[in-house]
Amino acid sequence: MYELKTKENDNSVIEFIEAVDSPKKREDAYRLLDIFTETTGYPAKMWGPSIIGFGSYHYKYDTGHEGDAPLVGFSPRKAKISLYFATGDTERETLLQEFGKHTSGKACVYINKVADIDVDVLKALINQSVKFLQELYPNK
């Protein structure tokens, strides 16, 4: 998420979802699109070639590295669906304990399908991530 190639663009979110090979994954992508849109109140935007992001914030690190990133997002990838939430938030780890079947990396949470997770916990993760990032980076 920190690479500068991941920038907001005007590519069509619907066209991107329609190009997803698996019908089940495409169905889940539309479900996530609805959940993220309703929960955040932000319109979906493409970030880079494959991330559907909601809202944005401007970050600047002590190293001088800075850029823009979506507050939250997801990507229906071939192997798993990647969910993007704020890193460094201890609330995230607490919520993930109740989330359902998933694995996590540093910036992503990976799920196989929406049916494996608790949608209410997903909404809480989305809200918590947005709140955390807006408090950490209040400029935008």
Plain-language structure description:
- With 140 residues, the protein is α+β, with helices and mostly antiparallel strands.
- The protein has one domain: Aspartate Aminotransferase, domain 1, CATH 3.90.1150.
- Helices cover 35% and strands 24% of the residues.
- The chain contains four helices and nine strands, in the order βααββββββαββα.
- Strand 4 (57-60) and strand 5 form a beta hairpin.
- It starts with 7 loop residues before the first strand and ends with a helix.
Distance between the termini: 18 Å
Q: What is the rounded Rg?
A: 14 Å
What would the CATH topology be? Aspartate Aminotransferase, domain 1
Oligomer: single chain
If you average the pLDDT, what whole number results?
Answer: 92
Q: Write the element-wise H/E pattern from the N-terminal end onward.
A: EHHEEEEEEHEEH
Tell me what the CATH architecture is.
Alpha-Beta Complex
Indicate the CATH class.
Alpha Beta
Question: What proportion of the residues form beta strands (DSSP E)?
Answer: 15-25%
Provide a quick synopsis of the model.
This protein is α+β, with helices and mostly antiparallel strands. Helix content is 35%, strand content 24%.
Give short descriptive properties of this protein.
140 residues, alpha+beta, Aspartate Aminotransferase, domain 1, seven-stranded antiparallel β-sheet, two-stranded antiparallel sheet, 9 strands, 24% strand, globular
Helix and strand topology:
Blueprint: E1 8-9, H1 13-18, H2 23-40, E2 44-47, E3 51-54, E4 57-60, E5 66-69, E6 72-76, E7 81-84, H3 90-96, E8 103-104, E9 108-111, H4 119-136
Antiparallel strand pairs: 1-2, 2-3, 3-6, 4-5, 6-7, 7-9, 8-9
Helix pairs in contact: 2-4, 3-4
